Amino acid sequence: MFKIKRICCIGAGYVGGPTCSVIAHMCPEVHVTVVDVNESRINAWNSDTLPIYEPGLQEVVESCRGRNLYFSTDIDSAIRNADLIFISVLSNPEFLAEGTAVRDLKEPDRVLIGGDETAEGQRAIQALCDIYEHWVPKSRIITTNTWSSELSKLAANAFLAQRISSINSISALCEATGADVEEVALAIGMDQRIGSKFLKASVGFGGSCFQKDVLNLVYLCEALNLPEVASYWQQVIDMNEYQRRRFACRIIDCLFNTVTGKKIALLGFSFKKDTGDTRESSTIYISKYLMDEGAQLHIYDPKVLKEQILLDLSQPHISEDSRRVSDLVTVSVDPYEACRGSHAVVICTEWDMFRDLDYERIYDQMLKPAFLFDGRRVLDHLHPRLQNIGFQVETIGKKVTSSRIPYTPTAGDTRIHINPEPPVKKAKV
């Protein structure tokens, strides 16, 4: 039987880099080369500072880099010498969650391998199965045809995104009725038919996969003349956009219906904790809505570089004029610096460190009244104490402050509206 001895992975990004690093780590007899046209990215993979942050990844790479794991820009040679080629891990879709990618790779729920239903296709499937069987039980390796593997990937992410949008829709209802979305999520999550995962209300989902894969599903349905199905899944994206915009509106409303010239500290810029990935981060869109109203944003994230934050906020669909970003955005290297002199603190990413900040110190250095918006429900246990300190506390899916500071609007007041912008252009597969 044919045995794979040399693997080439084309693409050294968030999927290819970690996936093939773990393969090299778990299969020491297999020579793995990860190639990319981006020389600076390859240089980073060959340095002490990897191009992406992922818990445990540094140790995995260092354990086998230079032994049976190599990063190179010589794509042609790597392809010529390879027994197996990964191209963005197509037909072997990944089910990684950023922040736990190394654990997901080492202890996967399942490995899905798709291929042609021909003798050659089946041989290729078996060869790849042999690689994964080094550490994954056979019972967790699923083999299908190519279409089934690709649709399984899209459907899995669509179902997860759907759960988040579903609980976020309930969070709006909870705020209107006086219910607590965390209590509702606990109650329905204890139903074994539903389960508790992905029932955490927040400012919305982000990352590279959920929106892309849902929109790919929408596109496929439209292309195959299934408009009702396309419309159903489009609502998942529309609800996510609604939640982001609704949260921004709430900030503006609480700050006496205007944020023009007001300093607002945004804590967290990555789309979730334990990653430096900012793709489709909800913080980007919250920043957009606040910048549209003239807010002065001071942003802090423990893993996202200043250059990445400014690049994301300077994209044409976020800021038509990049000069606006330089005028309205300051990137801080310390959370207390970001909060100093601010009118409001907004927690946008659930980094663990934000639970342990000295909020008395932050309050003392803020302008009064001092507002704290917990967009990730990471400070639930502190809400009473924060109110005793003096904060006006607002969160997702729950009324914390029983009565807000009174405000009388004037004729010159303006505000953004919750009505969504024209639908996002649908991605193509």
Automatic annotation (TrEMBL):
Q: InterPro entries under this entry? A: 6-PGluconate_DH-like_C_sf (IPR008927), NAD(P)-bd_dom_sf (IPR036291), UDP-Glc/GDP-Man (IPR017476), UDP-Glc/GDP-Man_DH_C (IPR014027), UDP-Glc/GDP-Man_DH_C_sf (IPR036220), UDP-Glc/GDP-Man_DH_dimer (IPR014026), UDP-Glc/GDP-Man_DH_N (IPR001732), UDPglc_DH_euk (IPR028356)
Q: Which reaction does it catalyse?
A: UDP-alpha-D-glucose + 2 NAD(+) + H2O = UDP-alpha-D-glucuronate + 2 NADH + 3 H(+)
Q: Where, in this chain's numbering, is substrate bound?
A: 94-98, 153-157, 193, 200-206, 271-272, 376
Where does the record place the catalytic residues? C209
Entry's Gene Ontology molecular function annotations: NAD binding; UDP-glucose 6-dehydrogenase activity
State the superkingdom: Eukaryota
> Know the name of this protein?
UDP-glucose 6-dehydrogenase
Protein species of origin: Esox lucius
| Originating gene | UGDH
